[in-house]
Design brief:
Elements lengths: L18 H29 L3 H12 L3 E2 H8 L3 H13 L3 E5 L7 E5 L1 H25 L1 H14 L2 H13 L1
Antiparallel strand pairs: 1-3, 2-3
Length: 168
């Protein structure tokens, strides 16, 4: 029986994955990621932005008021790289950086109205693609997909994911 969305393998056979089955999964992830990022990449390209801008906008939207240090921790980028991205987003009026009330050294990040509109466009494109894929695959596959993704997360980063998941 061929593997694919129309012909799922039995759960028992998945307990003993071959290197070939794992290779297919890895390649599927590579190509799925290209599809998942294609629509936002086109939108970002029109504005002269890249994926780093998208990730920053996404997580600032998910956690309004997040600190620069928290965003550094979530994104796993260098301070210099994040500062370059944030400087552009702030100069272009998409993000506001506010001084912390309790610790004036902290900078709290918020999307502006324009930033919120951009985030909506980017997320709508990804939600549309994901919604279509989830509908095609069915509810059990959606649960399985999420389970696989969560199992692949580095343990030290799982707390960020859990915090976002619990915050929604």
């Amino acid at each position: 029986m061929a593997d694919g969305p129309g012909n799922p393998q039995s759960s028992e056979s998945l307990l003993f994955l071959t290197d070939e089955q794992l290779r297919k999964g890895i390649e599927a992830m590579f190509f799925a990621y290209r599809g998942f990022t294609a629509d936002p990449d086109r939108i970002l390209g029109e504005l002269g932005y890249g994926r780093a801008h998208h990730r920053a906008v996404h997580f600032i939207h998910r956690s309004p008021g997040t600190t620069v240090n928290n965003l550094l921790s979530i994104l796993g980028v260098t301070k210099q790289s994040l500062n370059r991205v944030l400087r552009t987003l702030i100069e272009d009026g998409l993000v506001e950086s506010r001084v912390g009330r309790q610790d004036r050294r902290e900078r709290h990040l918020h999307l502006t109205e324009a930033g919120t509109r951009l985030e909506q466009r980017l997320s709508d494109a990804q939600r549309d693609r994901m919604r279509a894929a989830f509908r095609h695959a069915g509810p059990e596959a959606v649960i399985g997909f999420r389970t696989v993704l969560e199992a692949m997360m580095d343990p030290e980063l799982r707390h960020h994911y859990t915090a976002l998941k619990e915050g929604s």
